[in-house]
Specification:
Structural class: mainly alpha
Number of helices: 13
Order of helices and strands: HHHHHHHHHHHHH
Helix content: over 70%
Length: about 210
């Protein structure tokens, strides 16, 4: 290190198990991601987080901050990254459900994890006994599937059946039947779903 041979110094520090010193060499060499990984191995999560951020790896920065117990810092990194799903999981792990759901609602259809965000939102609303909000989340998913045709049929079927079950729970039988009929229109009927239609038909007529 005194000779300025920082690469060799870093290797020697790492071989000696002195990971924070090896990380210091990586920082001096302008290798923040490498330094952050070394600090993670050393259990220095809070020191690793800003180095990951400096390397543009915001999700990893958020993960490091979370492991270090810095929830606010974790959320800050994930907010900049626009990773609403990860933010929601952090909030849910601390029982901060409304903040989690608010972040999930921010997800845009252009994001690759939009479907996951809406599914987690729908489940969270179900767990909170907010059936109307859950119905709305599933409706957004079905509309997204119709608009993009990127979602597999089995997912669409699952969302329609979820809406059906919610309507049954609300004793709104005709609306429940409409969801099953939509399954039929989309060619997503199964034997079990068809059986449910026949079982509910007398209640609809009544």
């Amino acid at each position: 290190e005194e000779l300025g041979e920082l690469i060799n110094a870093g290797k020697a520090y790492k071989a000696a198990g002195r990971l924070p010193d090896a990380a210091r060499m990586a920082v001096a060499l302008k290798r923040p991601a490498e330094a952050a990984r070394l600090l993670l191995q050393a259990g220095e999560f809070l020191q690793a987080a800003p180095l990951f951020a400096a390397a543009g790896r915001l999700e990893e920065a958020g993960s490091a901050a979370y492991r270090g117990g810095d929830v606010a810092g974790c959320i800050g990194y994930l907010e900049v990254a626009g990773d609403y799903l990860a933010m929601a999981h952090v909030y849910l792990s601390y029982g901060r459900r409304e903040e989690a759901k608010e972040r999930l609602r921010r997800a845009k259809q252009s994001q690759s994890d939009y479907v996951q965000c809406r599914e987690v939102l729908a489940l969270a609303e179900l767990e909170d006994n907010a059936s109307a909000a859950a119905l709305a989340a599933y409706a957004e998913l079905i509309e997204y599937a119709a608009a993009t045709q990127l979602v597999p049929d089995e997912q669409v079927r699952r969302w329609l059946v979820a809406r059906f079950e919610l309507y049954v729970g609300r004793s709104e039988i005709e609306l429940a039947m409409a969801e099953l009929e939509r399954c039929r229109e989309l060619g997503l009927m199964t034997h079990d779903i068809d059986l449910r239609v026949r079982q509910l038909q007398p209640r609809v007529e009544e």
